[in-house]
Design goal:
Elements (H helix, E strand, L loop, with lengths): L4 H19 L2 E4 L6 E10 L4 E6 L4 E5 L5 H10 L20
Length: 99
């Protein structure tokens, strides 16, 4: 039985979208070290400590950085600055403007 081309295209598109989340995904660990999950950082607000991550299944979760391991918090502070303060551009929003 032959499946119509539209279904093939839809399935291919769905696979690409679902796999796209995993490209930049990393393993996150809970503060107590008991749980881990895979996800991609979406936003990190340094001032409030709020973190938003998209899990590989597509679900988004927002939580305070204190729920993460010390290593993950250090990673956020080093790598999450470009995604802080809800800024959608690739910039360091917390730095002073150029003189």
């Amino acid at each position: 039985m032959m499946v119509p081309n539209r279904i093939h295209l839809f399935l291919l598109l769905a696979a690409v979208i679902l796999c796209g989340v995993g490209v930049d995904a990393r393993t996150w660990t809970s503060a107590d070290g008991a749980k881990t999950f895979e996800g991609k950082l979406q936003t990190y607000d340094i001032k409030s400590g709020k973190v938003t991550v998209t899990k590989v299944n597509g679900n988004r979760m927002t939580f305070h950085q204190d729920r993460l391991s010390v290593d993950d918090i250090a990673w956020l502070k080093e790598n999450g600055g470009e995604k802080s303060s809800g800024c959608r551009r690739r910039c360091n929003c917390n730095s002073a403007p150029p003189a």
